[in-house]
Design goal:
Aspartate Aminotransferase, domain 1; 4-stranded antiparallel β-sheet; binds pyridoxal-5'-phosphate; Aspartate Aminotransferase, domain 2; alpha/beta; 2 domains
Length: 387
């Protein structure tokens, strides 16, 4: 029997706080019980406040890929030209969904250790003014990079295109300016920087996006992929189209309450600090970060390259077996190219930077690589000095 991990410092899902785990043990009440109806209304209102938006968001009852695919199915019409921005595995993957629903898919693809250059988006609009929808990933979790969505959104808005954003691993770790960017559909997951359980998609939908969905004859209704079916489900007097994921709602309710108690700005600062600390620790071990520059590193996770001569999977196994520390490898095409340490939600805590750097460092020593574990840990901890 394999023992449970001591520290889950992966790129998600995160290990939720004790408070969230207690909420997950709440009895399953009927979805139409007044207790649950009130809790559902409250969680959407708490989310509205945390997201700093006018209307409560909509919740879809499946892991964030449900919301992402539903966004493509609902917003993209059969005559649309779509521009997909691919700076990583998730961005590339979005293009496959978008292609199913549009007339023509254009793509800007950059190497997966880089971010999208807004100037390239501007020049794409110049040559293709008919672009109706643009899709982008905010924090590219498989490669630890962050895209300049604010700049991209301004360009899309100027050219009258609607913008779909995958903010699954960025919301909670860094500002997501839903209405200000502006974006049209933004998908958020509870299981990353919010520190909740996986299993729900939180959807921001702009007025422009609703108008487009309402006029799109192909937008799904009476379907698992339907956004419209859930439009007013947060109102106690409106019936759910099917049974919501009751336990996940309890977890989300607790996790958003904790986020609001801390304050979003404080949470962003905490993620930025722990990310800087983890990067300092990795560099202190003499290792190289995966992203081309620190400026484009995501605050939610740190991606780095295994040193020559050792495989990422051997480092991960050593960390897990010897030290009980679970970190992530690469994903998709990047499976063997990099390793990832998550610092999201409860794991964006200063001590976990030292834990992950110590475990990676000593695993490397054990595998015959000459690194100075002390330098790595000292560099990680020093990033907290004076805070
Ligand atoms: C986690 C995540 C998702 C959800 O995908 P899973 O692989 O099912 O966890 C989507 N987009 C991004 C950027 C994510 O980090």
């Amino acid at each position: 029997m394999i023992s449970e991990p001591l520290f889950t410092l992966t790129a998600g899902p995160v290990q939720p706080s004790a408070e969230t785990v207690r909420a997950l043990a709440t009895p399953i009440y009927d979805q139409f019980d007044p207790y649950f109806l009130e809790l559902y209304e409250n969680v959407t209102e708490d989310l509205r406040i945390a997201m700093n938006i006018q209307r409560p968001p909509l919740i879809m009852h499946g892991e964030a890929v449900l919301g992402l695919e539903a966004a493509a199915a609902s917003l993209i019409a059969r005559d649309d030209v779509v521009l997909n921005l691919a700076s990583g595995v998730y961005g590339k993957g979005y293009g496959y969904w978008a292609a199913r629903y549009c007339k023509k898919l254009l793509e800007i693809e950059v190497p997966y250790d880089e971010a999208i250059d807004p100037a390239s988006v501007e020049s794409m609009f110049r040559t293709n003014p008919e672009i109706a929808v643009v899709s982008v990933v905010h924090s590219e979790t498989p490669s630890g990079t962050l895209n300049p969505v604010a700049e991209i959104a301004t360009i899309c808005d100027r050219h009258g295109a609607l913008l779909i954003v995958d903010s699954v691993s960025s919301f909670g770790a860094v500002e997501v300016d839903f209405e200000g960017w502006p974006a049209d559909i933004v998908v958020v997951g509870p299981q990353k920087a919010l520190g909740g359980p996986p299993g729900l998609s939180i959807m921001y939908i702009s007025d422009r996006a609703w108008a487009k969905i309402d006029s799109n004859p192909d937008a799904p209704t009476a379907s698992m992929l339907s956004i419209s079916d859930w439009r007013d489900a947060h109102k106690a007097e409106v019936k759910f189209p099917f049974t919501p994921s009751i336990t996940e709602i309890y977890g989300l309710h607790s996790t958003v309450a904790q986020h609001l108690r801390e304050g979003p700005e404080v949470a962003w600062e905490r993620h930025a600090r722990v990310a800087a600390s983890t990067r300092a620790g990795i560099l202190g071990l003499g290792l190289e970060l995966w992203p081309v520059s620190e400026e484009i590193c995501s605050p939610s996770l740190t991606a780095f390259k295994p040193p020559d001569g050792v495989s990422g999977s051997d480092i991960r196994s050593r960390c897990r077996e010897q030290f009980g520390v679970m970190i992530s490898g690469g994903y998709g095409e990047l499976a063997d190219a990099l390793l990832r340490i998550g610092h999201m939600g409860p794991t964006a805590h200063p001590i976990f930077a030292a834990v992950s750097v110590a475990a990676v460092g000593q695993s490397l020593v054990d595998l015959g690589v000459n690194v100075d574990v002390g330098s790595g840990v000292a560099a990680a901890m020093a990033a907290n000095a004076g805070r």
